[in-house]
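Hi support team,

I'm filing this because I wasn't sure whether my run with S-adenosylmethionine finished correctly. The job status page said complete, but I'd like someone to confirm that the output block is well-formed before I use it downstream. Pasting the exact inputs I used:
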Amino acid sequence: MSRLVDGFGRVHTDLRISVTDRCNLRCTYCMPAEVVFRPREELLSFEEIGRVTKVAAAEGIRTIRLTGGEPLLRRDLALLVRMLVAVPGIAEVSLTTNGLLLVEQAAALADAGLARLNVSLDAVGEPAFERITRRTGLDRVLAGLAAARRAGFAALRVNAVSIRGLTEGEIVVLAEFCRREDLHLRFIEFMPLDADQAWRETSVLSGAEVRSILERELGRLEPLPVTDRGQPAVDWRWVDGGGLVGFIDAVTSPFCDRCDRLRLTADGQFRNCLFSTTEWDARSLLRGGGDDAEIAALLRACVGAKRAAHGIGSPAFERPTRAMYQIGG
Ligand code: SAM
Ligand code: SF4
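And here is everything the job wrote out:
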């Protein structure tokens, strides 16, 4: 059986596929306020995504996560889910969404075989939601979470980005909300992938700081051992019961040494890291008559060139030219 192993022995089994760069929010840590999206014809079709997935699965990819931009803006996304679930070798297809369109789509996604949903939500108060996302819609996200639950998504995760000077005031209320609603909350450190390039090391509100705020206000937490090597989050358990809260400390405690992820951008470029400064052009092969062996070779070349670590904070660190919404988070 083929495996996608890089020069540091890391085996890659997860492919993040971005289906669009469009979005119905404008989160300050991701997108610019004014944006020009890629022309539609540059985005891979469902058939093209399906073909890349078949090749990737034959090479050793086992799990797919659909993302964007906002993936639910891509028309008939459930059809793509159904197509990818059926690819031999793919064990799980999951999705990351801002939740705004879940009321309309949760049931169809569940029916298509989507295994898991992550919903990004940084605040449960409307003023903070608007400050962070530059849009309204909190009520729709909350209704979307409820719709996802009704559709049968049991292990719902909520992802929240932590940014100094922006999100401190939301942490406790969000954690209380997630405890009450039995949602698995994960705090993600702010990474230098915002289109506005406002990221500074000082703007990273670390997982440790978030944890100390939570412990001061809500009670003691204790860490659980990391059982899944590919999992970037470290989960902590409320000692008084009441579930888990996770921390993805991508900046202060990088998990590069156990990274098992590759990426395909909406415009058909393979990337071996969020912070990759090189891309491998699958779209040209797909549209230029390339065969499956050539696509597989391209994917292997992408894996082979993966660096040991992202290097944020080191003098040699270079910000990628594309922002998070253009890569696929
Ligand atoms: N639109 C969908 C959403 O928001 O869930 C999917 C795409 S979004 C780019 C994927 C994830 O990336 C979200 O959880 C978002 O919070 C996170 N994200 C975006 N920009 C980030 C940044 N600069 N640092 C850390 N996480 C970021
Ligand atoms: Fe859109 Fe997701 Fe980026 Fe927010 S984080 S602007 S919802 S792509």
